[in-house]
Structures are given as C-alpha cells and as structure tokens.
Specification:
Distance between the termini: 46 Å
Radius of gyration: 17 Å
Oligomer: single chain
Shape: elongated
Number of strands: 3
Mean pLDDT: 86
Number of helices: 1
Low-confidence stretches: none
Length: about 100
C-alpha cells in the first residue's frame, strides 16, 4: 500500500545585537521536536543579516535532523532491531559553541 505524509517545519528567527537565534519546530504527529541554532556576527565583519539568518536556521535544522534520527534509532531498538552502528562525524566550520 502506498501512503503519503506531509510534515511541516516552521523556522523562527530572532535577531538582536549581531546575534541571530533560530528555532525549527517539527510536529510529526507523535513526537514534536524543536531544534535550535545561533549565529553571531564577528565585530570585524560587515553585518549582513541574511547570512546570520542562514547560519542560525541551518544550525537549527541540523539540530532538528539529529534529534529526528535519535528518535528513529530508539524506535528501531524498541521494535527489536539491533542498535545502529553510526560513526561519529567530525565537526567542521564554526560549531554552535563557537558561534
């Protein structure tokens, strides 16, 4: 049987004093999830708000994606599948901790 589902993600952006914060919200119907991301403009850089929006939103979506994969992993284990063997990714670029 073929089925179709649509999940909508809402991304909220908040900017104040050179810092942009993003919140990405997904409700799957069974597990509402919220991802967070932050971007800060370096004092020596030109303040271009759209870049902060892109970075903060991308980080929030990446956080949301990680949470969704964790939920799926727990559901797989709950269904009797062996725990997933996922290699840890090496961080690249500016991490949220450095943002």
């Amino acid at each position: 049987m073929t089925t179709t589902a649509e999940w909508k993600v809402r991304v909220y952006l908040f900017e104040e004093g050179g810092t942009t914060r993003a919140r990405a919200v997904l409700d799957t119907g069974s597990a509402p999830l919220t991802g967070h991301g932050t971007a800060r403009c370096s004092p020596e850089d030109v303040d271009i708000p759209v870049i902060g929006d892109e970075l903060a939103a991308g980080r929030a979506l990446r956080d949301l994606a990680g949470q969704l994969i964790q939920v799926a992993d727990r559901d797989l284990v709950g269904a009797g599948a062996p725990p997933p063997d996922r290699p840890r990714r090496t961080a690249y670029g500016w991490t949220d901790a450095l943002a």
